[in-house]
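[agent] plan:
  1. take the single chain provided in the ticket
  2. run structure prediction with default settings
  3. attach structure tokens to the ticket
  4. add a short note for the reviewer (M.T.)
[agent] executing step 1
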Amino acid sequence: MASKEGGNGTVGRRLAHVFPHALPVVLAYLVIGIPCGVLEAQIGFGPLLALAFSSTFYTGAGQFVLPQMVLAGMPLPTTIASIVLVSSRQLLYSAGLAPYLGKGSRLDAFALAATVTDESFGVNLDRFAGDAGWDVRDGLLLNLLCMFSWALANAAGVLVGGMVSLPTALMSFGMTSIFVCLLLGQLRDGSTYVAALVSALLVLACKLVGLQGAAVLLGAAGGVVCGLAWQVWARSGGIRS
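[agent] step 2 finished; step 3 output follows
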């Protein structure tokens, strides 16, 4: 008898449901994880350590920050504080997904929140909002597929890091390109355009005044607030959103 996995039936059926949505992020992570692994090799990581590190310390941008700051000779407290600030955006992601996690078990909800990243958050939020059949375990499976592709790419990067010279600065732009692709799929009405524009301007302003670590958090928060304000104003008769 086939084992059941909640609302989407067998494990195979659930995987078939989730994998097409995970595939763009999985492929992108395979590309940008390699230069991250190359950087990790420069601070002494081996493939197994990179694999374990990427599966537990799973923050994307924060994982790029660590080897760069170590190579720059930054003090440990400064490095930790920078990574915490860069990763603090995860608080917003958990809050954004919380309304959709009530129907799943607490363990599944915890595991989903613990494995979410920028890109998987965007895909999950879109699925939860637009697909009535998308449940907590679907979201968790998507997160795990993305996480394992990232971890494998980091391990591969460590392996090849000593053998070839890779333009890591250029390849790291792959992370930015993922956000651009996700953003274009979310621009649907006036409020989303306002949120995107305000977020971009706030991040740019923060970086110009030296608030590198808090730029993403402040930009995201400001964009959400302005987007919601625009939506309320439009619905009250201001303009058609």
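[agent] step 4 note for reviewer: Residues 187-241 form one domain.
[agent] ticket updated
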